Amino acid sequence: xxxxxxxxxxxxxxxxxxxxxxxxxxxxxxxxxxxxxxxxxxxxxxxxxxxxxxxxxxxxxxxxxxxxxxxxxxxxxxxxxxxxxxxxxxxxxxxxxxxxxxxxxxxxxxxxxxxxxxxxxxxxxxxxxxxxxxxxxxxxxxxxxxxxxxxxxxxxxxxxxxxx
Length: 164
Fold this sequence. Notes:
Order of helices and strands: EEHEHEHEHEH
Mean pLDDT: 89
Strand order of the largest sheet: 3-4-5-6
Helix content: 40-55%
């Protein structure tokens, strides 16, 4: 498949759009802004992303919309984080609905979480105040979960808070 590029898109000649590691390099060559690669679900892809020079990755299954049998992002997170070994930040996307979800994600190696749907629900119900309220709830729940596990800082959260 041959792809053509312009400032707003990558267009491929087949019916199915494809993006290659060469496209990641091309994108990095266009900007000095940090490039984060979204959709990383395997440790091998995570290692390749680090080697490609991206500044961060987002563990995401795109809400299960692309392939409905992919694992949950929380299940893919730990092996990806182990392979990345702290070399670049890891964000996780999907399934964050409570403060305990944030605690688990950080414990399994996430540097941060993305909260798309809760943010949108808050926006739909209450506009900007609704979004602020959602963030406040998540923060309060995270603080309670941290206190319940004896953690006083985000940096002190580790895999020992996970019951296996």
